[in-house]
Amino acid sequence: MVDLTPYAPSDYSWWPDYAERYGEKWLRDYCDRLFVRLLRMERRSCLKVIDMVRPENYDVFVKCLYRTYRELIFCNSEENGYAYNYTIENDWTEIWRW
């Protein structure tokens, strides 16, 4: 079984290095596309990372997933009127929307 936990950051300190490596615009666009993909998920559905991401992209995907997930948590407040409930499970290999 694949474990993507080693790629998971605990903060945003990775961003400058990855922005330099991939380009700021590309990295923002990648994260934005992931954000939209998660917003479009059906309730009670799951995205399997290993089925949708090439192994050579696990690192950048998981880091963007961390950023996107944090944004969704921020958006998921009663004050904002959103009702999104996401979890990342099974060693960062599954994203669930409840």
Brief synopsis:
The chain has 98 residues and is of the alpha+beta class. Helix content is 47%, strand content 12%.
Question: What does it look like?
Answer:
The protein has one domain (7-97). The radius of gyration is 13 Å and the shape is globular. It has 98 residues and is an alpha+beta fold. It has four helices and three strands. The chain starts with 14 loop residues before the first helix and ends with a strand. Helix 1 (15-22) crosses helix 2 and helix 2 (24-39) crosses helix 4 (58-75). 47% of the residues lie in helices and 12% in strands.
Shape: globular
N- to C-terminal distance: 24 Å
Q: What oligomeric state best describes the polypeptide chains here?
A: single chain
If strands are numbered along the chain, what order do they take across the biggest sheet? 1-3-2
Which consecutive residue ranges, at least 5 long each, have pLDDT under 50?
Answer: none
Helix content: 40-55%
Would you list the SSEs in sequence order as H and E?
HHEHHEE
Q: Tell me the Rg in angstroms.
A: 13 Å
Derived from helix and strand composition plus strand pairing, the structural class reads alpha+beta
Number of domains: 1
Secondary structure: number of strands? 3
Q: Helical region count?
A: 4
Which percent range describes the beta-strand content? 5-15%
Mean pLDDT: 90
Task: Let me know the largest β-sheet.
Answer: 3 strands, antiparallel
SSE layout and pairings?
Layout: H1 15-22, H2 24-39, E1 45-48, H3 49-52, H4 58-75, E2 86-89, E3 94-97
Antiparallel strand pairs: 1-3, 2-3
Helix pairs in contact: 1-2, 2-4
